[in-house]
Amino acid sequence: MTTTTTAVPPFRDIPSEEVDSDEHGGPPGSKSTTCNCGWANKAQTRIVNGVETKINEFPFMAAIIDRVQKYQFCGGSIITAYHALTAAHCTIRYVLNGNPISIVIGDHNLYNEETSATKTIDVERIIQHENYIRKTLKHDISLLLLAEKIEFNQLVGPVCISPVQLEIPKQYVKIIGWGNLKWRGPSPDVLQKVNVRVLHRNSCNRVFSIVAEENPTQICTYASQKSACQGDSGGPVVWLDPETNRYVQVGLVSFGTICADRNPTVHTDVPAYYNWIQENIEGTYTEIYMLKLNYNQILRQFCGIV
């Protein structure tokens, strides 16, 4: 996550503090979700002009860890008790070399375990999108099958996913992650959040012509002097659904140019892959059975908006 003092591009911007949510942990809205998902834990006070999250503010957040070298290299999101999402460009190296990875859940400070919810879980298998293209980062999505079940509680739980693509241009969404604070700069110890605005695809295509107008699988975001950065890749981009008052994952961080420069950031459109996610979750039933996990709960725990 990064902020800079670069020149303002030709995208209209609204100060993110105006839309920073103060309804975290609030009651469900007028519309229900298919199961409990996407809640946030309300901060007692807001950090003025700050970007650090409250401890366990976003229960669905996960860090992706190199199990051998013991470092965080990408973000991810919990979607069931047995599965997490991240970007394919985060996992391609591990798919090719076979090196193991893990996820860390319930964490805030990666270098100081300060919550009872923090737990490291090994990844049993990486299911990378079969049509992923490294050159263009098309289909930049991977599903992670976990080696053990996540026990959900108030501090750890799944994000909501929409079964249909959402048309939310000009609305604000949150990027969450442990990414660098500036281009080639240091990474933070604690989890960060930033509000950015979803752009119309034609605005994004001024910079990235690969974002398709028809059958789009990517979305773009922008906010003046704010963006994702190295280490945020694969992490969730979430929208607070006003009808459910729950966070829906609308994207996962894919790519940009230089952090917080004059250009937007491109994300994989997660709802565009709803069917792919569901099919591949179902494809892990046998492995989950072999791991002695309760696969009858999987579909009930893949939560979304109705």
Please describe what this structure looks like.
The chain has a domain at 61-158 and 273-301: Beta Barrel (Thrombin, subunit H), CATH 2.40.10. Helix content is 11%, strand content 26%. The radius of gyration is 18 Å and the shape is globular. The chain has 306 residues and is an alpha+beta fold.
Summarize the structure.
The protein has five helices and 14 strands.
| Topology as a string of helices (H) and strands (E) | EEEEHEEEEEHEEEEEHHH
- Ranges with pLDDT <50 over ≥5 residues? 3-25, 44-50
Tell me the radius of gyration.
18 Å
Helix content: 10-25%
Structural class of the helix and strand makeup? alpha+beta
Give a quick account of the main beta sheet: strands, pairing sense, barrel closure.
Answer: 6 strands, antiparallel, barrel
CATH architecture of the domain at 61-158 and 273-301: Beta Barrel
Using DSSP, what is the number of strands? 14
Order of strands, main sheet, comes to: 2-3-4-7-6-5
The oligomeric state of the chains shown is: single chain
CATH domain topology of the domain at 61-158 and 273-301 = Thrombin, subunit H
Count of separate DSSP helical elements: 5
* CATH superfamily caption of the domain at 61-158 and 273-301: Trypsin-like serine proteases
Estimate what percentage of residues fall within beta strands. Answer: 25-35%
Q: What is the name of the CATH class of the domain at 61-158 and 273-301?
A: Mainly Beta
| Mean pLDDT figure | 79
Question: What is the first-to-last residue Cα distance?
Answer: 31 Å
Region (Disordered): 1-34
Keywords: Disulfide bond, Hydrolase, Protease, Secreted, Serine protease
InterPro entries: Peptidase_S1_PA, Peptidase_S1_PA_chymotrypsin, Peptidase_S1A, Trypsin_dom, TRYPSIN_HIS, TRYPSIN_SER
Protein name: Peptidase S1 domain-containing protein
